[in-house]
């Protein structure tokens, strides 16, 4: 079975400060990992993914994520947060041998001006 | 490139009534998904199609939910009769090929009163 944990329901940061959204996962085989963002009354937008290769993945809107196999983590980061980054962020995982994508419960990010 | 199209965006119905949601995936995407997202939770897969065949409907409440993708392109999700707990966002998504990045539509927001 596969699962995702986002340990923080909310993250609050000041604009211009670094932003980190945490994610840990559990799969039987090799993980395929994804981050999505959801703005109010909108669908999910794809940010980035890790399939294989470099552990540091760069995505849309200046976001990046680091895959850490030993810690089974895939934390989302942004060096300098913007007020417009305020949204709901979802981490998702699927096992290499499975098609089903499992989502975490989401983390609400609030960036204050 | 056009994204995943969904309609209607918002629907309010009384319990025991029926509702149908329509989805048109990204052109060329053979795999289509319907997810249910209840407020405060991550999306949960209801059903996955590969072309016009069902790959996984294990979490679809088949006594009240049905979905079809007759020509392997657009899809309809129906709920009949609706219950209060069906209030959620119904997200359609597509990918090519199955298991790669999944792209979501804007969602259909259902309120059952």
Care to describe what's here?
- The complex is a heterodimer of chains A (113) and B (113).
- Helix content of chain A is 0%, strand content 53%.
- Chain A is an all-beta fold.
- In chain A, the strands form 3 sheets. In chain A, strands 2, 5, 6, 10, 11 and 12 form a 6-stranded mixed beta sheet that branches. In chain A, strands 3-9-8-7 form a 4-stranded antiparallel beta sheet, with no helix packed on it. A two-stranded antiparallel ribbon of chain A has the order 1-4.
- The mean pLDDT of chain A is 94.
- With 113 residues, chain B is mainly β.
- In chain B, strand 4 and strand 5 (44-50) form a beta hairpin.
- Chain B is globular.
- The model of chain B has no long low-confidence stretch (mean pLDDT 93).
List the helices and strands and how they pair.
The complex is a heterodimer of chains A (113) and B (113).
Chain A lengths: L2 E3 L4 E5 L4 E3 L2 E3 L4 E8 L5 E7 L5 E3 L5 E5 L4 E6 L8 E9 L6 E2 L3 E6 L1
Parallel strand pairs in A: 2-12
Antiparallel strand pairs in A: 1-4, 3-9, 5-6, 5-10, 7-8, 8-9, 10-11, 10-12
Chain B lengths: L4 E3 L2 E4 L5 E6 L6 E7 L6 E7 L2 E4 L8 E4 L6 E5 L8 E8 L7 E2 L3 E5 L1
Parallel strand pairs in B: 2-11
Antiparallel strand pairs in B: 1-3, 3-8, 4-5, 4-9, 5-6, 7-8, 9-10, 9-11
